[in-house]
Amino acid sequence: MSVERNTREIEKDVVTDFREKLSYGSYLQLDTLLAAQQPISQPQHHDEMLFIIQHQTSELWLKLVLHELRHAREELRADRLTGALKAVARVKKIQEVLTEQWAVLATLTPSEYAQFRGSLGNSSGFQSVQYRAVEFALGNKNARMLKVFESAPADHALLEAELHEPSLYDELLRLMARRGLPVPAAVLERDVTQAYEMNEELVDVFVSIYADHTEHWDLYEACEEFVDLEDNFQFWRFRHMRTVSRTIGMKTGTGGSSGVGFLQRALELTFFPELFAVRTRIPA
Ligand code: HEM
Ligand SMILES: N[C@@H](CC(=O)c1ccccc1NC=O)C(=O)O
């Protein structure tokens, strides 16, 4: 039947009685999810809703990023590189959404934000446990980051566990070693609770993979996927730093840091240093 009077007929078999059936809202627990947007500014500020939802959607995506990174790590452990790369491909797409999403928050002007910033007290994204867990899973380990979670035991335990897990990169390097590539022992036996640091001998291993990439096709592909992951992560950090800059200028952060300067220094960090160093060594 065609659409009459610009109104769609609801087909007769469309299910409408949910007294004993699973509905959309109950499956997704929307009562819980949609009850969680509670502005605290007094008097209420219109734009606080945007601020809350921007963060909550980011946290939901971070939850999936962490879930997928953990899966990718398990796949690598089981020598299933293809399975790991499938998860990484999904993470890359989520990162793109997270980075694009800054455009929504950029509609918040500095004067609008200033009107409810005071209500935020000392809360800050610096205290995002999922963000920190993602950083750890990618190899940016820093035990000092646990301190802000001391009053939240479950978060602290989650991060402590993540600190002791090998990162995604650690697992890739172990897989490479199992395949007979000469990954240095110092890399394989490193203390995984420490930040990953560049190993020159490992660059040689990647030079050999890139020189003979038809021989090592899947590893070569994995390397390029990891480079994408790091790039995407940096794009997110950059958009955050620029959004902060246009919103609060050089004010110090609610979390107690210097603000923009502190965020800029994160842009100097790297997850997979050898994968960037290898580029300099590609013959002309
Ligand atoms: C107007 C919006 C925002 C401003 C002004 C802002 C500002 C800041 C500042 C100044 C810091 C440094 C820590 C501090 O002293 O507070 C920070 C850290 C952080 N923010 Fe935001 N932020 C904004 C939005 C967001 C959003 C939407 C997210 C998404 C989850 C987010 C996540 C984070 C994270 C994860 C950190 C820690 C970064 C790190 O350790 O390198 N921020 N933010
Ligand atoms: N650190 C921000 C406040 C802020 O953005 C924020 C506050 C509470 C919860 C999350 C936040 N997002 C990122 O830091 C500021 O200094 O204005």
Chemical compounds bound to the protein: protoporphyrin IX containing FE, N'-Formylkynurenine
Secondary structure: helix percent: 55-70%
DSSP strand content: under 5%
Order of helices and strands: HHHHHHHHHHHHHH
Shape: globular
Helix segment tally: 14
Q: In total, how many beta strands?
A: 0
Which residue ranges are poorly predicted, with pLDDT under 50 across at least 5 consecutive positions? none
Overall pLDDT, averaged? 98
**Rg, alpha carbons:** 23 Å
Q: What is the rounded distance between the termini?
A: 65 Å
Q: What is the makeup of the main sheet?
A: none
Derived from helix and strand composition plus strand pairing, the structural class reads mainly alpha
Protein model, in words:
Keywords: Dioxygenase, Heme, Iron, Metal-binding, Oxidoreductase, Tryptophan catabolism. Pathway: Amino-acid degradation; L-tryptophan degradation via kynurenine pathway; L-kynurenine from L-tryptophan: step 1/2. Homotetramer. Its cofactor is heme. It catalyses: L-tryptophan + O2 = N-formyl-L-kynurenine. The chain is mainly α. It contains 14 helices and no strands. Helix 3 (about 50-75) packs antiparallel against helix 4 and helix 11 (about 200-210) crosses helix 14 (about 275-280). It is globular. The mean pLDDT is about 100. Protoporphyrin IX containing FE (HEM) binds near residues 54, 55, 126 and 262.
